[in-house]
Amino acid sequence: MTMSINNVAIAAALALLVFAIPYPEPIRGAGALTPRAFIPGVQASANCAMNAQESAILTAMRSDSRQKRSQLVCSPALRQAAYFHAQDMINRAYFGHITPPPNSIGPNQMARNAGYILPTFYGTSVTANYIESIAAGYDTPAAVWSGWMASTAHQAHLLGLDPFYGEQIDIGIAYIYGANSTYGRYWVVITARRGP
Predict the structure, then answer these.
(1) Rounded CA separation 68/73 (Å)
(2) Quick one: three-class SS letters along 61-72?
(3) Which pick of 32, 135, 146, 169 has the fewest CB atoms within 10 Å?
(4) Helix or strand or coil: residue 134?
């Protein structure tokens, strides 16, 4: 496939991610969550076995000298949520933290749908994202890591530079290749802390 310079620039800009994680405002006495369907496109391993690309991202996170987390522990539920999101982006040809309508959901709700209990102060918005970094189009773990590290917001999330993220020691990582998809390679990292 031949791409013009403008198309390459646009693809590169998109590959540098869509990411904005506002800090959650504490919510006291929030109501019940709205039920949403969780239809996984790919089953993640219950024992957190990772492919080579996912292992490389975890290694990069653990070995970066700026990492503020004391540990990173694989969560099967967060891994399932990450896989769901990566596969859903491939299946429905979009790139973003929030799934397309109808019944749009964000990463916080994806984690809940996979059985992970988030802290109550994360709120109940079904489109919220306080836990996820995504990328698409990068060919290698080194390339995606470099792209993420070129972004202040991604550094804060992935390296736990802010205390809010530093408490998020549970992790789920997904890498999926979709041969006929828009960007080919999709990368998702979810970090969270268990509630209530």
Answers:
(1) 14
(2) HHHCCCCCCCCC
(3) 32
(4) strand
- Nearest partner of 137 among 128, 146, 127, judged by Cα: 146
Residue 48: its pLDDT value, please? 84
* Cβ contacts of 87 within 8 Å, gap of 6 or more: 40, 41, 42, 176
Give the phi and the psi of residue 57 in degrees, each rounded to 5.
-65, -45
Dihedral, 152, 155, 161, 165 alpha carbons, nearest 10: 110
In order of 52, 58, 74, 100, 172, the CA distances from 49 in angstroms are 10, 12, 9, 29, 11
> pLDDT of 24-40, one tens digit each?
433 333 333 333 433 33
